[in-house]
Amino acid sequence: MKREIYDEDHEAFRASVKEFVDRSVLPHTEEHIAAKALPREFWIEAGKQGLLGLEVPEQYGGAEAGDFRFNAILQEELAKVGAAYPTCHGIHADITAPYIVELGTEEQKQRWLPGVVSGEILLGIGMTEPSGGSDLAALKTTAVRDGDSWIINGSKTFITNGYSGDLFVTAVRTDPEKGPKGITLFGIEATAEGFSRGRKLDKVGMEESDTAELFFENVRVTDAEIIGELNMGFIHMMQKLPQERLGCAVANVAHAKQILAETVQYAKERQAFGAPIGTFQHNKFLLADLVTRIEVAEAYIDKCVLAHAEKRLTAIDAAKAKWYSSQVQSEVLDHCVQLHGGYGFMNEYRVARAWRDARVTKIWAGSNEIMKELIGRDLGL
Ligand SMILES: Cc1cc2nc3c(=O)[nH]c(=O)nc-3n(C[C@H](O)[C@H](O)[C@H](O)COP(=O)(O)OP(=O)(O)OC[C@H]3O[C@@H](n4cnc5c(N)ncnc54)[C@H](O)[C@@H]3O)c2cc1C
Predict the structure, then answer these.
(1) Which of 9, 64, 79, 295 is close enough to 254 for a disulfide, judged by CB 3.0 to 4.6 Å?
(2) How far is the CA of 125 from the centre of ligand 1 (A)?
(3) Contact (Cβ atoms closer than 8 angstroms) between residue 211 and residue 160
(4) Between β-strands 183-189 and 226-227, what pairing exists: parallel, antiparallel or unpaired?
């Protein structure tokens, strides 16, 4: 089905992203997998191409695109290479940077945003703790007042870009009595005394993204590191999570669509019983089913992208896009593995990695159960 939300400007941008991907990403994917992280050169190169500052105002070096369709194109083109790329990029540029852009003080913007745009300051977001991620309001990392400072103690886990990041927007309890109304966001630099991180966590998939625990041991910060308003961190996160979930949805579908296209090609070439496996009616119907499922999901997500570009996306529609796209992605990729036979279980085949990579998308950014909880509540249940 012809997509209708992208015009000539968007497609010109897509061409420039593809050029970046062909030149600076595709030749290095095996190195990224081996390193279990994206190297700083990836970020610097992306910065030079203007691909890190779509959300950032021009005065700090960004493109200030103001149209989420550009973000979506970037996510799609990166997802075609591998699911970890839109993840790491999205955490930096689409998920964490907006907190500084929209909630930061002038001093914070001047201090951090030029480096965010150039790739010299890599961002991560610290919400999840070892004791739990779904129940964000129960987080335990504390900030206690000490004169003009705050003393932060606690830890975060599963943090994307955690091992190589330079600045973490971190959710911290500033009032133990007030539940969700006692949480504040702090910008904590990796150079802060008392800040440390664990090893790169050993994951089932998404090898190219580094994921780590962060530890805070008497980390001293001041009000100058508070992002947004004191005790308003939970509200700030709730306001920003729809964009995070929509970005995930875009990447989920683009990733599955790419691997499905490669699987269709494989089914045309792979022979069994003297015929291409795709010509057997079971497989033909299966591929017809999968292509339809992807296009239906894509159509819904395109509608959400357009709504978000026009500032009218609801949190509930973003939740629907997130859970549904990750479910469709997982189902499609599981069938793609099956159609590849034994090769589908070999890591050297992209389909095998894609299948492993996809699993986490039903868990992170708010698990699919939490998405359905939100949707159910909206139904008045
Ligand atoms: C690779 C990776 C990268 C990540 N990156 C980041 C990051 O950059 N920053 C960050 O802050 N976090 C990150 N996360 C954390 C992620 O968002 C959490 O794992 C997720 O929110 C779930 O939290 P949890 O793991 O503590 O599971 P839990 O909250 O312990 O949930 C366990 C299970 O119980 C279910 N459950 C919980 N509550 C309910 C309920 N009310 N109804 C029904 N079922 C429920 C969940 O759906 C899940 O299936 C990442 C995770 C992974 C694996």
Answers:
(1) 79
(2) 14
(3) yes
(4) antiparallel
CA-nearest residue, atom 11 of ligand 1: 127
Mutate to test the pocket of ligand 1, among 134, 245, 248 (most ligand atoms within 8 A of CB): 134
Question: What's the pLDDT tens digit per position in 95-136?
Answer: 999 999 999 999 999 999 999 999 999 999 999 999 999 999
Give the residues across from 124 on adjacent strands. Answer: 168
Which domains occur in the chain, in start order? Answer: 8-122 (1.10.540.10), 124-231 (2.40.110.10), 235-378 (1.20.140.10)
pLDDT in tens, 45-59: 999 999 999 999 999
Q: How far is the CA of 225 from the centre of ligand 1 (A)?
A: 26
Q: What are phi and psi of 215, to 5 degrees?
A: -120, 140
For 108: left if phi > 0, alpha if psi spans -120 to 50, otherwise beta; the answer is: alpha
367 lines ligand 1 (CB under 6 A): yes
